[in-house]
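Throughout our pipeline, every protein is held as a single compact record rather than as scattered files. The record that follows is passed on verbatim for readers who wish to inspect the format:
___
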Amino acid sequence: MSPPPDLDALSLSELKSLVLKLLEERAEFQRTVGALRDEIARLKGGPGRPDIKANVKPSGMEKASEAQPANPSGERRGRGATRGKLTIHEERKLEVAPPFGSRFKGYAGFLVQDLVIRPHVTHFQRECWRTPDGRTVMAPLPPGVEGHFGPELRRFVLAQYHQGQVTTARLVTLLRGFGILISKRQIVRLLIAGKQSFLDEARAVLRAGLTNAAWITVDDTGARHKGKNGFCTQIGNAHFTWFGTTSSKSRLNFLELLRAGHGDYVVNKEALAYMRARALTGSVIARLRKHKKRAFANRRAWIAHLRQIGVTALKVNPDPVQIATEGALWGAIKAHGLLADTVIVSDDAGQFDVGQHGLCWVHAERLVHKLDTFTDAQRAAQSRVRRLIWLFYRSLKAWRRNPSPARKATLSARFDHIFSYKTGFATLDRLLGRLSANKSELLRVLERPDIPLHTNGSENDIRCQVTKRDISGGTRSDAGRDCRDAFLGLLKTCAKNGFEFWEYLGARLAVPGRQKIPDLAQVVRALAPTPP
């Protein structure tokens, strides 16, 4: 900002306006410098600066817009009877010495819940036979017994580590206190060795969730792996959750995750449409469209194809290799029947802007809520705009419950009125202009009333990854990373479908007396909406 020609000639109002403008620019400059320092710290391998703004008290828009449940009496509801929810394992009669002449009146029941934890060591004497042809035949171990630790102990370790967020060192201390002879190395083996069936189920859950999903919400957070900073991406909806930790948070990385474990690249009409929408040059699109080969098994085959048709040699903007690769990934997603008519709802992070995209209203309003203000007039303008957004958000929620074409037009006009409003607070007016430019994504709900208005579900889901990172740091092996992501995703999926994670582990580890838990992918697939 260039200085005025003569400061002494400015009036009091002009000086005030100048000071406010300088304060706003200073606040913006501090945010930019802070973001640059944070990025430099991450590039050097450090944790970066704490996000102080993240500790700002939530605005409360979502809670305030919820209809309050009717409770005429105003009394708190009780939790109900306990006996009907419990299984009685033991009945004990207690005697008392009554005074002479007393009459027996029966028994007064008193329930006590307790937990029995003790080591249980079984020495299996396995019959061994020598067959006439010289082979040795040995009696097999019971179902669920793998190695020298039984299924109940393996279930306990997995539940404590993933659900209880207990570290491996504390697990060693805990189990040794129970009388179990075990080392930290053995704990790590119990956590990651032989878990392919869980990894397969987690991947099947993702594929089932993305098939005919009406909507998904997405989010990401920082993650450490092999001593380097990375990112954990969450994908989910009301029926499933899946996590994937990678070294990047680019759109290319997000599309690779959306392939749900498939490794191919496909050039089809969806891929070509994606490339056109991303402004890939027409000559490159023509080369890809005219070539007889359209499907490629892996990245190596795909890059070799781009090199063969001369795409890798092009030095133009946007990068033709990147856009063509993103398009081929999108084509593979569609070729496998994923995201058929799915809306992806995000917090406006650029990497998530693919396909049908909707934006989170809570994040949009948060930008107004966190805005720096310096005068009473600015605070009044901020409060007025927030009140208008809150009222509009409540109307959108009401419209979702009872959509109608007439009200749709009214809501669209109200959006234009709110976000074209000029408050005189320059920073706020610029922010409203940016939000106005996102109208189609913020009002995606008017086209699809079945989608949510926020990504609170994703933020709640990914909190377990943040807690795991804060407690245990990062992962050291690819197997450890994959198991952590898979088990936390399965844990969340169980909760969303009414299954106890403890019982789920018992079913998969063949614990004696276990409950039967169905395949989670089949559960998610059965709950997916039927396409029109």
